[in-house]
Amino acid sequence: MLSSVRIHRKGQMTLPRRLRSAIGIAEGDLVEASVRRGKIVLTPKLVIDRSEFGNADDEYTPEQRRIIDARLAKSDEDIRHGRVFGPFNTAEEMAASIEANIKKLRAAKKN
After folding, report:
1. pLDDT tens figures, 17-71
2. Within 10 Å of residue 1's Cβ, how many Cβ atoms?
3. What is the largest CA-CA distance in the chain?
4. In this structure, are residues 42 and 32 in contact, taking their beta carbons and an 8 Å threshold?
5. What is the rounded distance in angstroms from the CA atom of residue 6 to the CA atom of residue 13?
6. Residue range 64-99, pLDDT digits in tens
7. Which helix (H) or strand (E) holds 23?
8. Residue 14 in contact with residue 5, Cβ under 8 Å?
């Protein structure tokens, strides 16, 4: 979908309605602007107002914090005992490691 857009004073422009509709943005929404390979890319951004989800001063309830802390402690224990994978230099190396570990788990499950 191509559209020509004129740049106005202070770099302002109007994004045509059909482009806004195509990516689901409306007046007041935020977009991230970046440059990739010499092109400007606009990406819709979701902003969450934490005040809608309870106490804005405290990010988590005490129960949620206990669960998070327990999971972090288990992760630290796994790292200390060498129960980790990687690091990987490529996505292919990671995928091969995952496949190998799936095969090991399936073989162990059969026995």
Report:
1. 998 888 888 888 889 999 999 999 988 888 776 666 555 456 788 888 899 999 9
2. 6
3. 72
4. yes
5. 6
6. 889 999 999 999 999 999 989 888 999 999 999 999
7. helix 17-23
8. yes
Whether the link from the prior residue into 62 is cis, omega within 30° of 0, is no
Length of the chain, please?
Answer: 111
Q: Two tokens at 3? A: 């559209």
> Going from the N-terminus, what domains does the chain have, and what CATH number goes with each?
9-45 (2.10.260), 54-110 (no CATH)
Lookup: tokens for 1: 């979908």
Q: Locate tokens 């224990």: which residue?
A: 77
Residue 22 has φ and ψ, to the nearest 5°, of -60, -30
- Could you list the beta-strand ranges (E) of 1-111: 30-36, 39-45
pTM of the model: 0.41
